[in-house]
Structure formats: C-alpha cells, structure tokens
Design brief:
- The protein is built from six helices and seven strands.
- By secondary structure, the chain is α+β, with helices and mostly antiparallel strands.
- It has a domain at 11-122 and 171-192: Aminopeptidase (3-Layer(aba) Sandwich), CATH 3.40.630.
- It has a seven-stranded mixed β-sheet with strand order 1-2-3-4-5-7-6.
- Strand 3 (72-82) and strand 4 form a beta hairpin.
- Helix 4 (104-119) packs across helix 5.
- The longest helix is centred in the C-terminal third of the chain and has 18 residues, at 170-187.
- 26% of the residues are buried.
- The chain binds coenzyme A (COA).
- Coenzyme A binds at residues 1, 33-34, 37, 91-94, 100-106, 129, 133-136, 138-139, 142.
C-alpha cells in the first residue's frame, strides 16, 4: 500500500441500529463489488432488509457495526456470535469503492479481532471466504488466520460455490498482533482507531 486512506483519521464504531444509516445499509450491501464476494449474491429487497433489521433488534448473537471516519461511514463489520460452540463469525466490507486497497481492510480486521477476543477470549474467530476472493484470503492470512477446511457455500437460490473456512485463536492473534499494530501505527496512527465497544 503506498497511499493511506485519507487525512485526518479518526475511526470509531457504532451499532448500525443506533445510527441514521439503517436504510443506506441495504444500498451498500447491494453494490456489485460487495455482493459478488458474499455467499448470497442476490440483491436484497426492501422487505428482506426490513426483516433483517428487525432480526437485529435485541439480538445477542448477531450485530452490525458501521465504521465512521471523522463521521463519514467507510465500512461495515458484521458479527455472529456462537456462544455454545465458542466461536465468532465476522464479516466485513468497505462501503465506498474508491477506498479499496488503502489499508481500511486491515483496520477493520484488526478492530473486529480485538472485539472478538475481548468478548470471547477462550473462543475462536471463524470465517468462510469464497475461494475466488483472493484479496480477502490474503488479508485474513496476514492477520494470522489458518485454513481449516474446504466447503461448498450455498447461496439463497441453492447455487453452490467453492469456499474455505479459516480460523484464528486468541493465542495466535496475540502473537501476530504486534506486527499489525506497527503497520497501523505507520499508516493511520493507532490512537486514531477506536475499539468496538463490547456493550453496543
Ligand atoms: C476484502 C476487503 C475488505 C479488503 O479491504 P481493502 O481496504 O481493500 O484492503 P487493504 O487495502 O486493507 O489490504 C489489506 C490486504 O489485503 C490484500 N489485498 C488487498 N487488495 C488486494 C488485491 N487487489 N489483490 C490481492 N490482495 C489484496 C493484501 O494482502 C493487502 O495487504 P498489503 O497491503 O500488505 O498488500 C475489500 O476488498 C472489500 O470490502 N471487498 C468486498 C467485500 C468482501 O470481499 N468482503 C469480505 C467477504 S468474506
């Protein structure tokens, strides 16, 4: 990366339900470069989106955070918490195509891992990535994620696509974190990146 996202940097996270962006979320998720990398490629309808938002209210297992830089929404982080199976399944996407490839993916991956292991220190982070999504595979390996298994991801229409499950433990993250923090310090200033509060 030879160009940082932009100046100044002051990244914070809010629960999407506590913001004015609940409707905008559907447009962000429906962008081609986002949906084509998700298991479900379908365009999300208004009705589906309403049900999704309803399902998020008072939900202790599923959360959606919006990352704001100086109040401007820049990325989405989704979290599914599997309390009984002791793992957390995050997702994420940058919401403005112009900001791809400028290090925000590393910021989001860092923030969500810190959140996950604060929430569930004994658990694992697990993520399923489509095999064609080379960018995210590289990114998650950089964070320390390890290949677990190959699967066929099935979309809402029953269409299958090759994918792989990757995981990371807190122990491995604690070893890897320093390198990532050095990079964040260099590119953004670590103090300019807030934590995702576990209580929101
Ligand atoms: C995946 C995604 C979040 C990465 O965010 P990003 O801000 O573009 O990535 P970054 O600039 O932070 O790059 C981080 C790392 O990702 C990998 N990467 C990024 N762009 C890449 C590219 N064009 N080709 C290969 N690897 C790439 C590299 O390992 C890079 O590290 P480096 O800078 O040391 O080379 C972003 O591309 C995105 O939102 N994609 C659409 C949705 C998506 O795929 N979400 C994940 C679904 S599981």
């Amino acid at each position: 990366m030879n160009q940082t996202y932009k100046e100044p940097v002051a990244i914070e996270f809010k629960n999407i339900l506590d913001t004015e962006y609940t409707e905008e979320l559907r447009n962000w998720r429906n962008q081609d470069f986002v949906r084509n990398n998700m298991t479900n490629h379908n365009l999300i309808s208004e009705e589906e989106h309403r049900h999704y938002l309803d399902s998020l209210r008072n939900n202790k297992e599923q959360k959606v955070f919006v990352a704001l830089n100086c109040q401007e929404p820049v990325a989405i982080i989704t979290i599914k918490i599997h309390w009984d199976e002791h793992y957390v399944e995050p997702g994420m996407y940058i919401i403005n195509k112009d900001y791809l490839g400028r290090g925000l993916g590393i910021v989001m991956s860092y923030a969500r891992l810190e959140y996950i292991f604060e929430l569930m220190p004994e658990g694992k982070m697990k993520t399923t990535i489509l095999d064609k999504n080379e960018k995210n595979i590289n990114l998650q390996k950089k964070m320390g994620c390890v290949f677990e298994k190959s699967i066929m991801a099935v979309d809402a229409n029953g269409k299958e696509e090759p994918a792989s499950v990757y995981f990371l433990t807190k122990e491995a993250w604690d070893k890897n974190k320093e390198e990532i923090e050095k990079r964040l310090e260099r590119d953004f200033g670590l103090k300019n990146i807030a934590r995702i509060p576990v209580e929101i």
